[in-house]
Amino acid sequence: MPAAPSAFRMPPALYALTIGAFGIGTTEFVLMGLLQQVAGDLGVSIPAAGMLISGYALGVCVGAPLLTLATARLPRKAVLVALMGIFTLGNLACALAPDYLTLMAARVLTSLAHGTFFGVGAVVATSLVPAERKASAISIMFAGLTVATLLGVPAGAWLGLHFGWRATFWAVTAIGVVALAVVAHRVPATAGAGTPVRWREEIAVLGRTQVQLALAMTVVGYAGVFAVYTYIQPLLVDVAGFAQAAVSPVLLVFGAGMIAGNLLGGRLADRRPTPALVGSLLALAVVLASMGFVLHSQVGMIVFVGLLGVVAFATVAPLQLRVLNQARGGGQNLASSLNIAAFNLGNAAGAWLGGVVVAGPLGLTATPWIAALVTVAGLGIALLSVGIERRGASVVACAPAR
């Protein structure tokens, strides 16, 4: 007799993907705690240093579709191991970069592996569990990102403060070596295996309106997060009045919120995926707008940095599950990878928009308000998608039987 769903245990291979996600998540987010150190050492402005985050995100957007299509007929495990190798070499190049342009190029090289790893990893993760646990499997893999923010980013900020920002990238390189070994050892050779999909069939999924809307709501909805979080260090230091040494502990609060929100989003999406999708985006917009009222309060900023972590990652599993569900029947690898690219395009757009706001007449303190408006637009796309889906279901239900 099969075990009850509540007694189901996630397979060890899923946690191997989590470790890989931890390594990639650390290198993606770690610069947010190092902006001032990198800017000072390389002789560039803080907005220019912020573009290193945007450059990484844009590299994800390019690498995700290209590498996914190029590796579509290869074993999924081999693809994941190769991507971790690219990630490790890219971080080594970051640690050795002598100037800003070289660091940007190394960041882009590292980013090429990101989208395909998470996209293919999400497909592999959902293949390891029953249908009713797919969103939770996605959230467990993405827990690597949340733990990276909880531990990796604050630790990276501490290393950068005491030993220089290059020490942080040496540490991330070491994480990459460990992650590569764990993925190679624990992920089954047959994980995610299925009938190979031709690249034309993968691309064809992009013609579906609902897939397009799912990708758009990820880009726009998530851009609001990074319009604020990219500039969290100057917000905490220059506006709220925290000391530099306090940045790492406050980022720990954000990371703790991300872990809670990620797991919560997975559970809610397993039970009611559409309400979880709409509700998480609404909550994100509310928290971003409310943060604008507490920027000068240290206690208020600690509370809302934690809340931002919760609502930001409560959206991840519902958004990823949405695009996987809309791409059923072929092209899930590409759609899943493109949704990771969509997260990072939102990252890049948010970092760019935040930089425009910081450099313009509105200034740093306006970033939460602008971010909230952007996320509201993403919520509008989600509501449009749900409305189209329900109207389509009503037409099918009302069609006469033949």
From TrEMBL:
| PROSITE patterns on file | MFS
Q: Which InterPro entries match?
A: MFS, MFS_dom, MFS_Efflux_Transporters, MFS_trans_sf
Subcellular location(s) of the protein: Cell membrane
Where are the bilayer-spanning segments?
12-34, 46-67, 79-98, 104-125, 137-161, 167-189, 210-232, 244-264, 276-295, 301-319, 340-360, 366-386
What does the entry list under GO cellular component? plasma membrane
The UniProt keyword set, sorted, is: Cell membrane, Membrane, Transmembrane, Transmembrane helix
Q: Which domain of life is it from?
A: Bacteria
Membrane topology classification: Multi-pass membrane protein
Start and end residues of each Major facilitator superfamily (MFS) profile domain: 13-390
Query: Where does this protein chiefly localize?
Result: membrane
One Pfam family hit: MFS_1
Could you tell me one molecular function GO term of this UniProt entry? transmembrane transporter activity
Q: This chain belongs to which protein, by name? A: MFS transporter
The species this protein belongs to is: Coralloluteibacterium stylophorae
Mind giving the lineage of the organism this protein is from? Bacteria, Pseudomonadati, Pseudomonadota, Gammaproteobacteria, Lysobacterales
